[in-house]
Amino acid sequence: MMLKTGSIAALSALALVAACGAPDERVAVPRADAGATQQISYSSVSLRTVSLPTYAASEDIWVSGPDGRIVLGEGLLWADDPGRAVTLELARYLAQITGARVASEPWPFLDRPDAEVELRIEEMLAYADGTFRMSGQYFVAPEDGRDRARLFALSVPIGGEGAAQDIAAARGEVTRQLAREIAVSGLR
To answer: How far apart are CA 35 and CA 184, in angstroms?
Structure first.
């Protein structure tokens, strides 16, 4: 696989900013429209708090360098706690895609949800080849019906110069794709 020179340079620049002791900057994941809708088998869905790997759960933005090592982009921080943010993003996208009543835990309604979704992410990282990857497994436990477990591996290109905001946009896009995958394969 051929590496993108611009992406490597941008990721290296993130590490250089760290070395210069620049002040911390918070980077928000931009909101996007969920796109096409998908009918599902449930009118209400509870989403448990997403489980992230240690590096992805920190407020620091980590990237994979050209040598495969995960390095800290010091001075760059996520605007919100990543576990909370990804959980809320997924709940928002699932609600938009499905039209169902979707909420993250703790479930805020009196009646129980028709299904619960649990998500365990094993990889959530920007790579030197100019891609942002997310992989792991999700579980769907309906109140009535059969349980489901699915593996997923998603990858999107990091646009622009590969700057922090470009990485944040890629994370948002891969999260949107994951919500669509859960709606289509897990909740139908």
So the answer is: 13
Q: What residue segments make up the domains of the chain, in order of their start?
A: 38-58+81-186
Place of tokens 């993250």: 104
**Average pLDDT, rounded, for the chain:** 89
Query: What is the Cα–Cα distance from 63 to 53, expressed in whole angstroms?
Result: 13
> What pLDDT does 23 receive?
57
Query: Residue 3: which pLDDT band, with cuts at 50, 70 and 90?
Result: very low
For the domain spanning 38-58+81-186, the CATH number is 3.40.50.10610
Write down the H helix ranges in 47-122.
54-57, 82-98
d(CA 120, CA 123): 9
How far apart, in whole angstroms, are the C-alpha atoms of residue 61 and residue 125? 9
> Which is more confidently placed, 185 or 74?
185
Q: What is the pLDDT of residue 15?
A: 46
Residue type, 171: R
